[in-house]
Amino acid sequence: MSWATLRSKHAALRAVFTERSRRLWAASEARALGHGGIGLVERATGISRSTIQRGLRELEGKSRLPPDRTRKVGGGRKRTTVIDPTVLRDLDALVEPTAAGDPASPLRWSNKSVRTLAVALQALGHQVSHTVVAELLHDLGYSLQGNVKTREGRQHPDRDAQFHYIADTVTRAQRQQQPTISVDTKKKELVGDFKNGGRAWRPTGSPTSVRVHDFIIRAPGHGKAIPYGVYDLRRDEGWVSVGIAHDTASFAVNAIRRWWQRMGRPAYPQAHSLVITADAGVSNGARLRLWKWELQRFANRTGLTITVCHFPPGTSKWNRIEHRLFSHIAMNWRGIPLVSLATIVSLIGSTHSRSGLRVRTELDQGRYPDGVTVTDAQMATVRLRRHEFHGDWNYTIAPTVKRQRRSLIH
Questions:
Q1: Is the residue at 18 inside a domain?
Q2: Which of 47, 298, 356, 397 has its CA 20 to 30 A from that of 336?
Q3: Is the domain of 126 the same as that of 186?
Q4: What are the tens digits of pLDDT across the range 22-45?
Q5: Is 263 found in the same domain as 293?
Q6: What is the domain count for the chain?
Q7: DSSP-assigned letter for residue 280
């Protein structure tokens, strides 16, 4: 057998060889070649003479190994922890200095990569590489982990009770065939050729080019877009008004009014009340006078009795609109630069889900000044009745004059 044949056979089998099968194959080839076979196999494959000789002893039965072992017990290089018994203690102190009682550790405020840890251990006299450090970390029970959002801060003692109250209020209204909605402002978006999170399918090697810095473009049709959403909890439908001014209570209530005109009134022609669930801050805040005064104006125009239930502070993520409407909008426009207001409106309007979500949207070009003050005299006209349970979160606003059914479209 030629040197080239041996080399090609070894190259073809190298990927499937284990340490044991490799030396047994080399030994069998050397034995088949006879005199000079060991040297020929060594030159053709690079397998050392001592390894081939160990394989020959195994083939001849002079060195028996159990089927599940590659080497004899005790064979191979000793583990780093055996050679250097203190390395684990020092590594644990570097990774978790407070647990090891060493708050002055030089790596306390550093990025603890395996390469950084290896350098620090070498400075302490340990001969280790970054790959050995990774193995030792696993032995100590460490793994790569990100941050987990679990701390919600101080919780209100009536948090869960408020959740139940909201659920009962919504269920009762739905049983009476009355509309129930969830409202909130989605994150403001920069209008222009800015990077948008996520990825979209494009021809290989031709990503969409966007600006390096996210500075607001001071030009007509740009700036910031403010999407305010209204989600119908029963019909799985959404409405989004895209504003260009300020996220005020006047803007929020106007979005609700537009939803009622375009989607709510046709779906609930016999409605006499409306339940709104909202978080407790920003444009629909529980303490915001302008929000309540604007709702009174809306109630007067439509004849609807409006009940508002706010989620406790710090729990806005439980508001249904967040994961029933806004999450689908974010998925629909991922990786697509929001280059214009028209693009934003089109992308929101084309949002859908497997559950049948339907979304309508429009651009609200109204100017809503910030810092509007509602006087005591104006607040005195608000027919607000606080509920017995947490009247600061739950209240009902009745129309001043009960209007005719036909006026509900206004």
A1: yes
A2: 356
A3: no
A4: 888 888 988 888 888 898 888 888
A5: yes
A6: 3
A7: S
Instruction: Give CA–CA dist 144/292, Å, rounded.
Output: 49
Query: Are 62 and 52 a contacting pair, CB within 8 Å?
Result: no
Residues 48 and 193 in one domain: no
Q: Which of 238, 292, 226 is nearest to 262 (CA)?
A: 238
Domain interval for residue 163: 159-197+215-409
Residue 118 CB coordination number (10 Å)? 20
Q: What's the rounded Cα separation, in Å, for the pair 94 and 88?
A: 10
Tokens of 270: 């016999």
**Beta bridge partner(s), residue 395:** 308, 386
How many other β-carbons are positioned within 10 Å of the β-carbon of residue 336?
Answer: 14
Beta pairing, strands 358-364 & 305-310: unpaired
Distance CA 39, CA 33 (A): 10
Task: Please report, for the domain that includes residue 379, its CATH number.
Answer: 3.30.420
- Cβ-based burial of 134 (10 A; exposed 0-12, middle 13-18, buried ≥19): middle
Q: What is the average per-residue pLDDT within 219-239?
A: 93
- Residue showing tokens 């009014």: 257
pLDDT digits (tens, 9 = 90+) for 351-396: 988 889 999 999 999 999 998 999 999 999 999 999 999 999 999 9
Place 1 in a pLDDT band, splitting at 50, 70 and 90.
low
pTM value is 0.67
Could you give phi then psi for residue 315, rounded to 5 degrees?
Answer: -125, 25
DSSP H helices in 126-189: 130-139, 159-175
pLDDT tens per residue, range 101-151: 445 555 544 557 888 889 989 998 999 999 998 888 888 878 777 776 666
Which among 185, 224, 246, 243 is positioned nearest to 371, based on CA atoms? 246
Give me 139's structure tokens: 């032995």
DSSP conformational letter for 208: P
